């Protein structure tokens, strides 16, 4: 049952066509439809005799007030045979779990979103040149999204060159790309309401320097190890902790940290350069719904879930104690991973991430 705005030819001239009451049934397959103005008067009839009301409190204060006052009126009329709901249940508890496990149809749509996004990242690699602006790469990426039928970016694109890549949520995207810098692009397409989410980091001039390659290969090692672990039964924490172990040991080798890796992990010293979690659920939202803990314990992944695997290292220009050669280097590598019955499938495999693949693609683009 839907309550909708009625057709209004005068408003539709300004704001576009409305489906209206009839369209709600013919186009959106509602069993019944009414004008939105009728909602208040019909609310009492809808609630009367209902034992459980599924309603998400806190999303709309005006609607909350309307529902609460209606229930109060119904309670006052109990002697007349009016029965208010006995309980209010948050439907998110149910709906979020339904969204967490993807159907075959949803997986097909998400695979298409991933393919579109991977194409955009390849185009970014082939087009990047010293002297370009970050926003030119952003525009190119989002053009490829739209060219392939995606409605829009699934989130605000991050295009950070040089030290800008060490800012996790950098969105200014207005700096000049410099020869010798890395470029981090975190961008995903929204296709038929489902999101993709890919991050790739590559050299603006097409060739990694030795220090850049050392940081990059460490992040890639952590990412590949975590992806290999993804299968039904592994916990979210186990995946994250594996990335922490590899990155911390690697940071000691590179001279970014000093001490025993186990002690550095215990004291969370690694968070100087790896300050976020390994990933998140993906679906209709880029940070999709679903609980990461159940009964106080880290959740075990199940077949049909899609999650991102995105370790990173962020060594700011002013990072105290970091070797000079690594300062200003930010690397994140992110893929979208479907949990299958016997393992996993990387939906975003078409976006290159091995150093050799990236350099070869960029060299070919330059002719």
In words, what does this structure look like?
By secondary structure, the chain is of the alpha+beta class. 39% of the residues lie in helices and 17% in strands. It folds into two domains: 2-95, Creatine Amidinohydrolase, Chain A, domain 1, CATH 3.40.350; 96-366, Alpha-Beta Complex (Creatine Amidinohydrolase), CATH 3.90.230. Strands 5-8-9 form a three-stranded antiparallel sheet. Strands 6-7-10 form a three-stranded antiparallel sheet. A three-stranded antiparallel sheet has the order 13-16-17. Helix 3 (39-47) packs across helix 4 (61-76).
Can you give me a brief rundown of this structure?
By secondary structure, the protein is α+β, with helices and mostly antiparallel strands. The chain has helices spanning 9-15, 20-26, 39-47, 61-76, 92-100, 104-127, 134-147, 210-229, 236-254, 261-266, 355-366, and strands spanning 2-4, 33-35, 52-54, 87-89, 152-153, 158-161, 182-187, 189-191, 194-195, 198-203, 293-294, 297-298, 306-309, 312-315, 329-332, 335-340, 343-346.
